[in-house]
Amino acid sequence: MPNPVFDDGDQLAEVHAHLGGGVDAASMWELAHEQGIKVPFDDYWDFAAATNVHGGTAGLAGLDSVYQLTELIQSSPEAVFRSVYGMLAGGYRSQRITTHEVRFNPAKRNRGGERDLDAIVLAAAHAVDRAVLEYPIRAGIVLMMDRAFAPELNAAIVERAIRFRNRGVVGIDIGGPRPRGSAPPYRYSDLRPLVERARAAGLGVTLHAGEEGLGVADPSPYVDEMQQVVELGVDRIGHGIIAALDARLLARVAEAGIVLELCPTSNLRTGAVRDETQLAEVVFDLQSGGAQIVVATDGPEMIGTRLRQEHARLVRLGALTREQAREANARAHEVAFVKPLDWAAG
Ligand SMILES: [Zn+2]
User: How many whole angstroms from 210 Cα to the centroid of ligand 1?
Assistant: First the structure.
């Protein structure tokens, strides 16, 4: 069936995709066995079922437990190389993605410090080089901090991003569950020194915020989190859908020109939105409230989607017109942190 938004030859931009959710189950299974990693499944099909969330998850906590398995398997320089390369190459072949940013947390892939963080990041950078050589794409890495990490570990990740900024790393992010036992709001404003260091080094900043809280009685702690992120002066926000509930916050986002990276199917799978009707309302409200939106998968293999399907879903639901979906794709090319590599430009 032809895609209602894009022609086959249209070039797409994917700027919010996690490495832990971007590698197909067969490749992950092979990587696990090649490295002698004990996976808690005897049969491939049980493993495949456990590494995607097509049937939904127990909220974000459920998603996080799936990530823990994929992170374990990707915990070596070789596995990171193959995973990043596979996502970039496959993204071009399957979806014609020509602007592609892959994000991951290197400190969740070094077996608790056993592997060198630099070696992990360098492997990802090598994979970018190879993919850019083989396909007409521009690609970059976004290094992720974690909300549950100690400040020193997050600072170490930002230092890696800065060290490798001319070698494929284009930005920083934060994700993961909140520190054990802590209730929202997470204190994003504490990240200010790290955000400023990254920006001064020319890196882009996108932070996960405003993904949760649409279904709770009092969304104000989640609104507060996103407000803090807006005040940090970020370029983009991962999700940010809570702004649909708060006109003042949405106006601030629009005024600041902060880009919201929407991941529609992911929001349905994790229960961040109740159903397609709420999804459509949220996206419609964000768009008509003046927010700069882009459409992404969050990790096509784990979520069980494809980038072209994400745009098509929003058009089918009436959340965006076909023209608006195409504009969102053009915007994603523009706002990407990754710029064309000089040596690959010709
Ligand atoms: Zn995400």
Answer: 11
pTM: 0.95
How many angstroms does the Cα of residue 17 sit away from the middle of ligand 1? Answer: 7
Q: Are 239 and 207 in contact (CB under 8 A)?
A: no
- pLDDT less than 70: residues of the chain: 55-58, 340-346
Instruction: For each of the domains in the chain, give its residue range(s) and CATH number, in order of start.
Output: 12-344 (3.20.20.140)
Ligand 1 mean position, distance from CA 346 (Å): 33
Locate 301 and state its tokens: 């293999």
Distance 129 CA to ligand 1 centre (A): 24
Q: Cα of 21 to ligand 1 centre, how many Å?
A: 9
Residue 198, both tokens: 């990254």
Ligand 1 mean position to 86 CA, how many Å?
Answer: 19
Cα 186 to Cα 72: distance, rounded to the nearest angstrom: 26
Contact 21, 107 (CB under 8 A): no
Do 302 and 269 contact (CB within 8 A), yes or no? no
Residue 346 has a pLDDT of 40
Question: What pLDDT score does 53 carry?
Answer: 77
Nearest to 105 by CA among 20, 17, 1: 20
- The model's pLDDT over 196-213, given as tens digits with 9 standing for 90+, comes to 999 999 999 999 999 999
Q: Which pLDDT score, from 0 to 100, does residue 39 have?
A: 87
208 CA to centre of ligand 1 in angstroms: 7
Rounded distance from Cα 14 to ligand 1 centre (Å) = 12
Question: Tell me, what's the pLDDT at 235?
Answer: 98
Q: What is the DSSP letter of 177?
A: P
For residue 173, the Cα-to-chain-centroid distance in whole angstroms is 9
